[in-house]
Specification:
The complex is a heterotetramer, with 2 copies of chain A (481 residues) and 2 copies of chain B (448 residues).
Chain A lengths: L2 H4 L19 H4 L17 H12 L22 H7 L2 H4 L11 H18 L3 E3 L5 H18 L8 E5 L5 H8 L3 E5 L9 H7 L4 E7 L11 H10 L3 E6 L18 E4 L1 H4 L14 E3 L11 E5 L2 E5 L15 H37 L15 E4 L1 H6 L3 H9 L7 E2 L8 E4 L7 H20 L1 H5 L12 H6 L10
Parallel strand pairs in A: 2-3, 2-4, 4-5, 5-6
Antiparallel strand pairs in A: 1-7, 6-7, 8-9, 10-12, 11-12
Helix pairs in contact in A: 4-12, 6-12, 7-8, 12-15
Chain B lengths: L7 H10 L30 H13 L8 E2 L13 H6 L2 H4 L11 H18 L3 E2 L6 H16 L3 E5 L4 H13 L3 E5 L21 E8 L9 H10 L3 E6 L10 H4 L3 E5 L15 E5 L2 H4 L7 E5 L5 E5 L6 H4 L12 H39 L3 E2 L8 E5 L4 H10 L2 E2 L2 E2 L10 E5 L6 H14 L1
Parallel strand pairs in B: 1-13, 3-4, 3-5, 5-6, 6-7
Antiparallel strand pairs in B: 2-8, 7-8, 9-10, 11-12, 12-15, 14-15
The chains are: A alpha/beta (481), B alpha/beta (448).
The complex binds pyridoxal-5'-phosphate (2 copies).
One pyridoxal-5'-phosphate binds next to α7 of chain A.
Chain lengths: 481, 448, 481, 448
């Protein structure tokens, strides 16, 4: 039953105060040809019905609050509720982006300080908080790389962005959107960038390299300095995909390892909730040399006041207004609550939890890169596949244990990949229960793979037919004909 | 250790199982000299209680919309938000879930996105909509890029009376792809698209014509004219619309739009200094659906024949197609889209019509009162919830004075166009009352 | 798993700001013999664990937000969330009961006005908002009756409170607590008070009568005036149990039908949430003659200010401070939101919904009193019992339909009672689905009563052993030995 | 019609199925002349938006605890509340459920009550606790009545240094049952129970001795003495305790208490002008359990052997035993009990000890500073989080002056006892900071 199936003409879920001004006949205000003729196609319901409908929907959903959610690369950590209360304060939630600066000094101060914290954490100079998500940060960073090369007169020539084959799909997609050619660089046997191949790939056409470090295998690329040197020597810039920054806070700073631009996912590392797929926030931090290219506006502090300023060679704005401000508020509060020691403990424990689980599982699942991992690790379900149960089946079976499945089939360089990120907010008991479940499933794959293939069975719906959905797309209540 | 369950004993036990002694051993892969040898230079941590106090003091440094009467719009509007929405979207199952990759345990998010798609499609009278975009401006930019890809053309025409910020962002996105942006000027007297500028030849290479209804000045344009022009050139009609206006104003689908975008932040989302908002993106025809950026949810059935929802048509997306993807969007604005869906469900057709009608009538009222008080209108055109007022004043100074009286004045147009330095953009939503407007007029009249 | 099962020494869920004053050695502050020696016996958990634990618990619970909840006599209507927001405003939630009156004028105004609204709705004079629930209101009302008779010098003599056999159990229990003797009066064939029996029962020993009208059969006692006259003529007072007031707002006023004291359940009629069993609020409203006996304090308005005042012959306070203030705030907001017309519509639709459902079900279930009902009605499962499925079985089977069962085995005068109260916030579609479920169950009782006896099957736990719980009580995690 | 789904068409259809024409027909059983012929005289309805504005203006007429620094206690205290609690208790499944009559779909509420019972029992070191009482004061009154029923005696002794409001309420409850209340005086110098008043003979007919720890003046009493006295008379020891104090102060169970009551509002519940709070009630021994008022949840198993929870021992309750019930309590304060359980789970043993320790130390600090500033203590006794300060001032006027400086002063004892007109009760919780106290002392010192 969808909302429109529940609709009954005449019901109202919300009523405005009565109109209190004299009315002008509508035809005197709007030409008739501009008026809507068709139905609005919206449901007619009361508030109690809407509440029950969405409450029921929510009960069919897993979330971090419901259970373990080791979705690799997504840092599904606990989202402190106090930050929600803070973001909802009228002084943050009820301010208009076009208000005079004098009336929003608190908001600007918050942005300015958050900018500074992120700069400190990344080891870089200045932040743009405008990007709405990680991928948006990538695009923005790449536009800065482009602007930088154009400014140096090398814009035409430097058209290539080098991206490891282990990278997240947004990296090549962002490169493409930014008008670059994405060149894929392969990984070496330790899961890092193949340095020799890289040396061969760089040249005057190189605009830069995008690296995730720890990468999507959860591995720290030990050659990061060498890589940086190769790129810099070739005249390129280094972009750091910070989706995995939960592993490195207070431990190592991308800026110190040679990166020029970093993006953070506030909705991952800084614990702002994922909201079923957003809102996120993907601020980028750049080195001193790139500050002038940042998007418009950034926040500056002069004469005892905070100001919105357009950087000298700004690439322009990439989003209306200043970014996902309410998300920034939550991340800011998180940093202020934890402080330096707290953030470092976050990373230490995120890494500890991942290694602990990895170590427990490597008997039962193939571990393609058997070395210390950072905050996450990638298994392969290939042994189980040979027994007749794919990684998809394993994932679906996990759902029956009340656990959200790890990320699967990513990174692409691992066959039947199972990417596990426990995060630091999970207890040892939860990790142990997960290990136990994974082991039972490995056993089931041996004893009765059909059990996995027919999983899940304890979920609100059982295995859904994705092929059917794609072949005959029904995208709204009334199907597209 | 806030939020971290591992006790020192847990840590020791876990380290031991790894054959390690200290936490530092975990980071053996990081070259020693690269490691940070000092604590991060961040302020001392604040306990929750102190944090709340500190943050509320920071919040109080801002003048919020409950503390003043606002006539400020220009892209963000003070619409009424039903109280129940925040309660529903803060249920942990919605708030703390992510993109519904595992459909069987994500039917809540999936079905709610399906509702959002349906309601947006119906409201715009288009055939399909996606799961959300970052905001209206980026949705517009992506619509332009998508038009290029769909038509294999490298020029985009856009009315110059679009929100200047949106135009700037459009420019940034188009430039990165070397697409040329052609600005179609507006008539200085009406603020409406200059029909003469829409020359027959001009369109032949343009992927699309972008129009905004209402335009940045709040006015309603003759969309049919622009539509005919772009259609005759086999380009696409891209419309940017205020979803609230669709309670009264002709739907994009009725104009034959190919792509419709807009900002749905005004549907039940707090204004929050401009973000997070949520963009929507709707199209007609499967061909365009397959080029759409962002997530799409589709209906299907499970093994037992039960209806369910999944992410679908993923072949368009970055995680499958990588550099061939239709867009790089990954995380979108799901929770804001959920709020918008709940808003639309609560308001229903009558409610949305009422919101639109009250915006229209209140705007008309204030506009008339200001005219009666001796002010001039900058443009002569029908308006929806915003209009440009003219007076030879320094509007930024006037706004300072207004603030002292508890008013947040309109948007001084000189901030975007020196040629409009004598004008201010005044927005009136359903949230304004007659008394507030009358007092505002009285005040301004006194200063004339 | 209980909280203490999840506990791990050393975990912290909340940390206070550091102590910022110089410490005095504890032995200088408290004699050693006064210090605690034993463990606190509390769990050690982090915030994420606590959130997940209680989120999981909540998901095992039915509520109005989850589905239909036709629990008779309890008025499980929709609870508007806006009222929660209002009650949480710091100006209401963060005020101390001992603040100077000048600093709580808003709170006192709210109480004073709510007092007036309830007086108007009941047709009586003045309200005490102090009682914490309906039963507490009953006790308070009875103490006023007692004080009134004592004041007239008849305290010794008037020891009896007459209570219909259909009354809620709190009525006789309250009478006992107030030091009265409860006399049960039987019901007549139409479900009302047996007037003849009443005439015989009254006398100089009569302190008063407690009546629920509509009564717990959901029936309006047509003889209410006669009853009132009999009691008044005998020198007694009439107490109105207002648990069923959802049927009568703006339709008929207890005061106009002869009652001297009324209690309301704000958590029923005025839509404040039931919270899993409270907090409620049970204000009482009394006639002019009884105002002086009200509990201490009441709110008065004099000299342009609101004051807390002790009534002249007050029975004293019955609760610390002023009652469940936050609940009052919600009820006040509800009344202000609905207004007179809205409240009347509430009652009309509550009654309409009940009659509609009753009429649909009377073929399949025995309806002992086949007449127009008010906001609720009582069926009997005796036909089904003959087939081998008791009312308890029917109730348990309903749970499998995602519906909360009606109140069962109450009122006591109906065999195998099933007491259904749909409330006005339910839609016809929900009512129809309930009717359908009840019919299917009636059919199952015929075809396969075992199915009912073994219900529920789709709930988080299946039929629980209440006998075992009572025989061998385990009341805390460590059982009582 | 807010919140009512029936449309006029629905109504017509439903009426028709009943053979009726109008809604008025539904009320045919009510004698016509009794019906209200006019609309209720209530203010015009306010739409949600107006309601919020109106209510927030009303709220702003109060000075709230965030707007001042409070040293006010006397039965209600400004303790710190973890932010997450309100989020958890407002989940619809908790908020909109009622007493868990259908256990199979109420395990959430049942198990959370079981937790509350467990945590209260452990904190007080008693064997069992019930599901909650209205508040501490009524819990105390019911404890006294229960003592009478358990001992078959009709006299109750209570220390006169109990909260005077609680004593008054106790009096009301006891009077209604014709039970005599014997007030045991306190020593005027220490405020502690006058040991001489506890004469051997006196106890022989008393059902119980009620002591409060700390007492109304914030002081800690020699409970052992009172315990010995009442035990020797075969009466019950009833203790009223501040649950927060139990982080440091000896637990009632350690004193051999038979019944323990108190107000748990201070555990995670907003102060809300004094209500709703929540009372707790704990006892030792099955005999007393069976006489306990209120609901009790017990553990059991389901048909499949799975652990579950049910309301149990219902034979004590009004809906079974009617006039023979142990109490008339029906709705209690479940949601507040839930908040208390969550609070205890969050704080844990270390947290509760910390709260208690900070109360103790901060109180000691302010007490010392005020003494150093020249004030006298009214009583000479150890205190926990409150103490009586003496000065020949009109404390109500002083409080007015303090208010102007942003302080909510202590509780002037003259409001309850003219004999203590020179004294004020000052409460210090963990929420007060050194700076707040120092400034408070400076201010008061200046007025000496
Ligand atoms: C490694 C990596 N990079 C980039 C992204 C894109 O971030 P967002 O979803 O915020 O756009 C992700 C998100 O999953 C990621 O895991
Ligand atoms: C008819 C009737 N009277 C009195 C009460 C007692 O009300 P409360 O539970 O608020 O004490 C109830 C509660 O269920 C009731 O239904």
């Amino acid at each position: 039953m969808l909302l429109l199936d529940l609709s009954v003409p005449g019901r109202r879920g919300y009523v405005l105060p009565e109109l209190d001004v004299e009315e002008t006949p509508i035809e005197e205000l709007i030409p008739e040809a501009y008026l809507r003729e068709s139905d609005l196609g919206l449901p007619e319901l009361t508030e109690p019905e809407v509440v029950r409908y969405f409450t029921q929907l929510s009960r069919k959903n897993h979330g971090v609050d419901v259970g373990f959610y080791p979705l690799g690369s997504c840092t599904m950590k606990y989202n402190p509720r106090v930050n929600e209360d803070i973001a909802a304060m009228p002084g943050f939630s009820r301010i208009h982006p076009r208000q005079p600066e004098s009336t929003v000094q608190g908001a600007l101060q918050l942005m300015y300080e958050l900018d500074g914290y992120l700069a400190e954490i990344s080891g870089l100079a200045k932040t743009s908080l405008q990007p709405a998500a990680g991928a948006h940060g990538e695009l923005t960073g790449l536009l800065i790389i482009k602007a930088y090369h154009e400014f140096s007169g090398e814009g035409r020539q430097r058209r290539e962005i080098i991206i490891p084959d282990s990278a997240h799909g947004t990296n090549p997609a962002s490169a493409q959107m930014a008008g670059f050619i994405a060149r894929e660089i392969s990984s070496n046997s330790r899961g890092g960038v193949d340095v020799e191949a890289l040396r061969e790939m760089v040249g005057p056409q190189t605009a830069g390299l995008m690296l995730t470090n720890p990468n999507t295998l959860g591995l720290f690329d030990e050659n990061v300095e060498t890589i940086a040197k190769i790129i810099h020597d070739a005249g390129g810039l280094l972009y750091y995909d910070g989706a995995n920054a939960n592993a490195i806070m207070g431990i190592v700073r991308p800026g110190d390892t040679g990166f020029d631009i970093v993006h953070f996912n506030l909705h991952k590392t800084f614990s702002t909730p994922h909201g079923g797929g957003g809102p996120g926030s993907g601020p980028i931090v750049v080195s001193e040399a790139l500050v002038d290219f940042l998007p418009d506006p950034i926040v500056e502090y002069t004469d005892g006041k905070y100001h919105l300023v357009r950087p000298k060679h700004s690439i322009g704005p990439v989003k209306a207004f200043y970014g996902n401000f309410a998300v920034m508020v939550k991340a800011y509060a998180y940093i202020r609550h934890l402080g330096a020691a707290g953030l470092k403990r976050v990373s230490e424990n995120a890494v500890l939890n991942a290694n602990y689980v990895m170590n427990q599982l490597k008997q039962d699942y193939y571990l393609p890169y058997d070395r210390i991992c950072m905050h996450e690790f990638v298994l392969s379900g290939k042994r189980q596949k040979e027994l007749g149960a794919t990684t998809l089946d394993i994932a679906k079976r996990l759902l029956d244990y009340g656990v959200h499945a790890p990320t699967i089939y990513f990174p692409l360089i691992v066959d039947e990949a199972i990417m596990v990120e426990p995060t630091e907010t999970e207890s040892k008991a939860t990790l142990d229960a997960f290990v136990e479940a994974m082991r039972e499933i490995a056993q089931e794959a041996k004893d009765d793979p059909e059990k996995l293939r027919s999983a899940p069975t304890r979920t609100p719906v059982v295995r859904l037919d994705e092929t059917k959905a794609a072949r005959n797309p029904i995208l709204t209540r009334k199907a597209l004909v | 250790m806030p939020y971290i369950p591992n006790t020192p004993e847990d840590q020791q036990q876990m380290l031991k199982s790894l054959g390690m002694d200290t936490l530092a051993d975990l980071f053996a892969d990081i070259p020693e000299h690269l490691m940070l040898k000092r604590p991060l230079d961040l302020p001392e941590p604040l306990a929750e209680r102190q944090l709340l106090r500190y943050m509320s003091r920071l919040a109080e440094k801002n003048t919020n919309l409950d503390q003043c009467v606002s006539f400020l719009g220009a892209g963000a509007y003070d619409h009424i938000i039903p109280a129940v929405i925040s309660h529903l979207i803060s249920r942990g199952e919605f708030l703390t879930a992510y993109t519904p990759y595992q459909a069987e345990v994500s039917q809540g998010v999936l079905q709610s996105i399906f509702e959002f798609q349906t309601l947006i499609a119906n409201l715009t009278k288009m055939e399909a909509a996606n799961a959300s975009m970052y905001d209206g401006a980026t949705a517009l930019a992506e619509a332009a890029l998508m038009s290029c890809s769909a038509t294999n053309r490298r020029k985009v025409a856009a009315a110059a009376n679009l929100d200047p910020k949106w135009l700037e962002i459009l420019q940034v996105y188009l430039e990165s792809q070397d697409v040329e942006l052609i600005r179609i000027p507006y008539d200085p007297g009406t603020g409406l698209i200059d029909k003469d500028a829409l020359k027959p030849g001009l369109g032949s290479e343009t992927a699309c014509m972008i129009v905004s209804q209402p335009n940045f000045f709040g006015s309603l344009d003759d969309i049919d004219h622009a539509a005919r022009w772009i259609k005759s050139a086999q380009g696409l009609l891209v419309m940017a619309v205020d979803p609230v206006s669709l309670g009264i104003v002709k739907a994009p689908g009725e104009y034959g739009a190919d792509i419709v975008v807009g900002d749905a932040g005004c549907l039940g989302n707090p204004i929050s200094f401009g973000g997070p908002s949520v963009g929507f993106f709707a199209v007609n025809g499967m061909k365009l659906v397959r080029k759409m950026p962002g997530r799409i949810v589709g209906q299907t059935t499970d093994k037992n024949g039960r209806v369910g929802y999944v992410l679908t048509l993923q072949a368009r997306e970055q995680h499958i197609r990588r550099e061939k993807a239709t867009s790089n969007i990954c995380s979108n604005q799901a929770l804001n889209a959920l709020a918008a869906a709940i808003y639309l469900a609560l308001l229903g057709p009558k409610g949305i019509r009422q919101v639109a009608y009250q915006c229209l009538q209140k705007t008309a009222y204030l506009r008339r009162k200001l005219q009666e008080a001796g002010f001039r209108l900058r443009f002569n055109a029908p308006v929806f919830k915003e209009f440009a007022l003219q007076a030879d004043w320094g509007w930024q100074e006037i706004n300072q004075r207004l603030l002292e009286h508890g008013y947040l004045g309109g948007f001084p147009l000189e901030l975007v166009d020196p040629g409009l330095a004598d004008s201010v953009l005044i927005a009136v939503t359903e949230a304004r009352s007659k008394a507030e407007m009358d007092q505002f007029v009285d005040l301004l009249r006194g200063w004339l």
